[in-house]
Amino acid sequence: MYLYNISIIIENDHHESLMDWLKNNWFKTLPTSAKLLKMLDSPHEGHTYSVQLVFEHASDIPTFQKEKVSVLQTYIAQHHQEKAFIFDSTMKYI
Hints:
By secondary structure, this protein is an alpha+beta fold. The chain has helices at 15-26, 61-79; strands spanning 2-10, 35-38, 47-55, 84-92. The chain has a single domain (2-92), classed as Alpha-Beta Plaits (2-Layer Sandwich). It is 33% helix and 33% strand. The protein has a four-stranded antiparallel β-sheet with strand order 2-3-1-4, covered by helices on one side. A hairpin with an 8-residue loop joins β2 (35-38) and β3 (47-55). The longest helix is centred in the last third of the chain and has 19 residues, at 61-79. It is globular and about 40 Å long.
């Protein structure tokens, strides 16, 4: 099993707008098992969030990235350019 994590870092002045879109649009398209977390002790300025999903097979992650993460990337590029960025990571349960 694999944990797929998307970290989202957003500047304070764009925070509410991005979170509104995430919660009311993008997040609703994800599997119900997806979790949205707020990092409480971030070394970064602004706000840091994490979206986490569990996948049975690592081979399922590229499809998710193509279908869902690309939508998030496009939205951020169009509405929050240079004010927000994301990075992802995949971890294997041991």
